[in-house]
Fold:
Amino acid sequence: MPGTENRGGLRRIRWALWGLVVLAVLVVAWIQVIGPRLSALPDAGTANLGRGDYRLAATDGSTFTQDSLKGAPSAVFFGFTNCPDVCPTTLGDIAGWQEEFAAKGKPLRAYLVTVDPERDTPERLRDYVSWVPGVVGVTGAPDEVAKAVKAFRVYARKVQTEDGYTMDHSAMVLLFDAEGRYAGLVGYQEDPARTRATLEALLGA
Structure:
């Protein structure tokens, strides 16, 4: 009947409009809240970034402390092995940086510090980072990981799911000079030209 068809058409239009409203809200939330939180540090001084009394186990057999950042330029990234997209993408980016700058005789040390110590054992992390030369996995007791999260002022939170949990976390790569001082960051999927300039400044390439 014509009336029924008209009501059905109006209902579809109404649902489509609501869908657009929801999408707009999500976009605004990403731009104003989620995106900045994942790719930027809090508004605070960075002089002591990375400083703290954390002691964690590294997959190369060493102990990861604040002193591990000294001696050579370093990149530090917080993630976890069950990460569906951000962590694999970032490891791929780091692999590209390693290849480019190692060819110039300017290697970059990189550390992946887990935000999921309950599942990420040293063995699991070692397997996870093994395909990227120069990347060392870092894990430890939950309280020690919490100290590191605080020291580097990154965001990490457990999120419950239907089949367990996942981790919400900062996505930027933090950079440190050979003295262990904070030297900037590379945002998630940042413009390649800007990233290259940042790393060249860090490595003196």
Notes: The first strand starts at residue 56 and ends at 58. Confidence is low (pLDDT under 50) at residues 21-39. DSSP finds five helices and nine strands in the chain. Helices lie at 2-39, 86-102, 122-129, 142-151, 192-203.
